[in-house]
Amino acid sequence: MRTILLVLLGVLLSIYVAVMAIKAIAIEADARAVVVSAPQPPPPEPLERGKVQLGMTTERVEWSVGKPPPEDITIMANASGTDEFWHYDGGMLHFRDGILAGWTTDGRMSTNE
């Protein structure tokens, strides 16, 4: 009789663990659904190829004017973030933390202000 009770207790414990695991998976799936359905920011205004604006991400600049080869990119980390410089013939783009912060043409710095 005692053995039967121990076996039943083991079976019930196994069922409980399985149910808790299924609940955890369901909760995780619900959390992912919330993240996926979170409102997205409006898309940035369309730009013509060959044009850049302050505040553009590196991805948008790459789409617009192309990305230089790795040897023409300088990345510097400092206390306030990361500065990235893309060097082109006749100019350079300066990104701060992945956002276009300014550029040079013919040696003059511009921030489009």
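^ that was protein a. below is b, sequence first then the tokens
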Amino acid sequence: MARAKAVPWQPPVIAGSKGREVTQLTELLGRVRSGDAQARDALFTAAYAELHRLARARLVTERTVQRDWDKARLILAETLR
């Protein structure tokens, strides 16, 4: 069985008022990369709030959000090392 070709991740295109939140998350990511510990904490808080909002909009359970958030946090922590 042939493996599917990997497609590089692309950030979502978001129109409307939510673009401001995406810009804030992008700014926080840049500050985290620079070693700003306060930005790291703010990023986790802001990202969780946004993920929770998206999940609620898609009627995903809190348990699923928490599981996926735990995975995302582990990936982010590994990337920042």
